[in-house]
Amino acid sequence: MSKRIIFAAIGGLFGVLIPLLISGDTNYLPAILGGVFGIGVVVLLFKLFHKPKDNKIPDRDERIDLMVRKFLSYVAIVTIGVMYLCVFTFDYLGFKSIDLIYLYEFLLILTFIVLVGITIIRKR
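RESULT FIELD:
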């Protein structure tokens, strides 16, 4: 478990530092301190609320894997359909370019839907 936390911490710090390096900002200290603080909060919450399992029952089996694959395939089909619908709508309305923020918002919402859906499936 400690390897996962270390890799998550390194990834989080890179995620904080890469935008600063791209933007050319030279004030790295707040970003590093914010990343370390965020990682510390996550590790603290994990240590407080993580309960080790007493039984030897596996977390998942073939049925859960099948339900997750089925859910992800439905999400992918709906996502592709919505994106085609948006592209056709924007083309019909005469837009030749759009801001990327709309795509980022769509992908963020999609990520939350997938994470919540998989969490619900795995709890069953």
